[in-house]
Design goal:
single chain, 133 residues, alpha+beta, 5-stranded antiparallel β-sheet, 3-stranded antiparallel β-sheet, 3 helices, 8 strands, 26% helix, 39% strand, binds zinc ion
């Protein structure tokens, strides 16, 4: 029984990619009926979040809000020049934990799991660990 999954994705632009279907497939493959799924990204300018899947304007507005909250500043010292992406990554966080009951992810009707890219273009990785209780 596999409970650890590694996935990669191409992130050509700043965006949120809905990865819920993949995570649900991992849970199904794991055979876990009751437990948790941890979705984790090993990057410092990307993140994982849960938010609305119905209206695509929500993703647009999230990105707009993050841009407003974390603009590029000339006072930044980090030589790579992507401090704003590092700030967004820490704000969003590197992981989400989702409950599993009856073999399914416990998500609200409007909730999906998103991989968040803040410093494109990048080739990215995320992991899913499924744990039974
Ligand atoms: Zn950097």
């Amino acid at each position: 029984m596999t409970t650890f999954f590694k996935h990669s994705l191409e992130a050509p632009r700043t965006d949120l990619t809905n990865i819920t279907r993949q995570v649900a497939q991992d849970v199904a493959e794991s055979g876990v009926i009751s437990g948790i799924a941890v979705v984790y990204c090993p990057h410092t300018t990307a993140g994982i979040t849960i938010n609305e899947n119905a209206d695509p304007d929500v993703v647009h507005d999230l990105l707009l809000g993050l841009d407003a909250a974390f603009p590029d500043r000339r006072q930044f010292r980090h030589g790579e020049g992507n401090s704003s992406a590092h700030l967004k990554s820490s704000c969003i966080g590197a992981s989400e934990t989702v409950l599993i009951e009856n073999g399914s992810l416990v998500l609200g009707t409007w909730q999906s799991i998103y991989f968040c890219e803040f410093d494109p273009p990048r080739h990215r990785t995320y992991y899913v660990k499924v744990v039974s209780n």
